[in-house]
Each structure stands twice: as structure tokens, then as C-alpha cells.
Here is the input.
Amino acid sequence: MQSEDRRAPQVLRAKVTVTAVFIAHGLVFSSWAAHIPHVKAELGLSDAGLGTALFGAPLGSLVATLLSHWALPRWGSHRLIPVAVAGYVVAGATVGLAGSAAALFGALALWGLFQGALDVAMNTQAGTVERLARAPIMARFHGMWSVGALVGAVIGAACVSLGIGLTAQLTGLGLVVLIVVEPLTRRLIPDAAGAAASSAPAPDARTWMTPGVAILAAVSFASFLCEGAATDWSANYLRNVIGAGPSVAALSYTAYTCAMVITRFGAPRLHARVSSRRLLPALAL
Here is the structure.
């Protein structure tokens, strides 16, 4: 009991840091969605050309996921997060400098690489903090990611309305993240501490894919597919198909992230009344 009391301030500091990292992750990337129609027009890209360039981000993220599987056991999320945060904001600032479809693809792939690495590392650290806190707080972290995404979408829409370019916007946001978040990362906790505090048995590498995991993976795949479509194409659709003005088109992803915030923070009450077995199929539908 005394060791838990001594650990409480450390866990609280780690909670604050993980929350800040989740917010920063959602904030920076979502802020660029409003600029996609402008980038498309500036580079003279067709829909197919834009789609090919945008594929760089998920490709980089996928590579990062595979690399993180190797890196996390060796270095731990508390060491990877500071590196990933710095790389994330620096790589993001290069996206607005792309002068061709190939350059945009490369910049987004690099950005996606650090984004994916940060995604895996921050969720691993969130699991460590959750085990030490002995409370189900993961949903709060993801809710704060949605808040960051909403704020980022609003910032992106505002910058489009004011004529502020993508490079200036991402550089400014990146500096804020580096100044605010990077010093906090010294408060992160080694993953081994969370593993020691958990009473759950270690997973068997031979049974990593069970029917339950496969179903959840399929649901996650479909969810990210829809989210990616909303991020990459909503503003372009309103601008070039519906004929909305730049400011209105820029708000499309803001509406999406606003709905995400409302449902994520309302989900615990809904989940308290409806079992996961019934709730998950309904939400997936």
C-alpha cells in the first residue's frame, strides 16, 4: 500500500503527459485536412494523382507499426515517444514544401512513419499508465485525441479562411508541441513497471491471432478506412464536387471530429447500459 502511495504522483504526472501526447497527435495531423483541396489545386493533381500521393501517409504508418514491434521491447515507449514526437512535428512541416506529387508522397510517407511510431508508442505507454493506475482510463486518452483532432481541424479551417499557408501552420503548431510536450516526456514510465503491476498472464506468441482478435481487427480496419476517407476527401468533395467555398469546405472535417468528440465522451454512459456484445455490432453497422 505504501509503495502505491509513493507511486501515485508519478502515475499522475505520466497521465498528464500521455494526455498531452494524445492531444498533440490528433492536433497536428488533423490540422492539415482543410488544406488538401488547395494542395491538390496547387500541384495540379487529378483525383487519382491525389489519392496516390495521400497513400504515402498510411504506408509510412504501416511501416512504423512493423518497426515498432521490434523497437518497443528493446527501448520502451518512454524512450520512443520523445523521438517520435520530435520527428512527427519536423516531418509534418515538410508536407507544405512538396512541389510535385512524388514529393508529396515522400513527405507524407515520412510524416506517416513518425505518426505511426508515435501512435504505437503512446498507446503502449497509455496501457502502462492504466495498469499502474488500476483504473480503465484508456477511453479518456482516446477521447482527448478526438479533442485534439477537433481543435486541429478548427485551426486548419481558420488558417484556410485567413490565407495562412500549410507550411506556416504546421511549423507553428510543431513549435508549440515541441515546447509544451517534449519536456513533459521525461515523466513517462518504463513499460516494465506496468507489466510488473499487472496480474494478467503474459500473452502466448503462438496464439496471437484468435477469432476475437480477428473480428476486432476487421472492425478496426473498417473504422480506419472510413476515418481516412473523411480526413482525405471530405474537404475536396465539398470544394470540387459540391462547389462550396474554401472556408466552408475546410469545415467539413471539423464537423466529423466534432461528432467524434461527442460520441467518444458519451460512450461510457451508453456502454454502462448496453453490453459490448450488442453495442459493437450496432456501432459497426
Observations:
- The chain has a mean pLDDT of 88.
- The first helix runs from residue 2 to 30.
- The chain is about 80% helix and 0% strand.
